[in-house]
What we know:
The structure holds 2 protein chains of 2 kinds. Helices cover 0% and strands 53% of the residues of chain A.
Amino acid sequence: QVQLVQSGSELKKPGASVKVSCKASGYTFTNFAINWVRQAPGQGLEWMGVINTNTGRPIYAQGFTGRFVFSLDTSVTTAYLQISDLKTEDTALYYCAKAAPSYNYFDNWGQGTLVTVSS
Amino acid sequence: DIVVTQSPDSLAVSLGERATISCKSSQSVLYSSNNKNYLAWYQQKPGQPPKLLIYWASTRESGVPDRFSGSGSGTDFTLTIGSLQAEDVAVYYCQQYYRTPYTFGQGTKLEIK
């Protein structure tokens, strides 16, 4: 069955960087895009962007350009989210989500990675 | 950007009763070439990731109980839970995937009365 397994919680200081991984299994990784979604504490879902797992081309939502980078390692069927120059307002749960065939609703989600930024 | 607005923000319904959540988009998400509405519904239970319930506005995901149904077209959509069960307590989100950025509604918290 399809599974997306994310890396564990992270505690970082402001100004540091973090890299969250999303390991996919149970399907052909390069056939379906991976989306990233942020959920701040007690808040709703915010789409950060998507990466085409065939071409590696990312699309970033406004507000997630510059410090946020999506990447892939197709040899290990893993997508990554890297955030640099962390700020306290980056504290959130970060989810990866697999796109459905040919369309971008999200049919499978990772369990989420909590990133806490605190001095 | 397409703004997606849900109502109400919270809802309390008795067990066995019907629950209805509204979702409105600022622009039509109906794609004329295939007559499909690019609108999905998700359920998020406490401490869990969201789960896909409905896509194309009215198509239930495999395994989703048939008490969940979606309707609407263009800019106005509804999620209906036909007979509320205790396990349906959750926050429900709609999302448009017509155009990037793929925006979510703010969520509707469903509780038992």
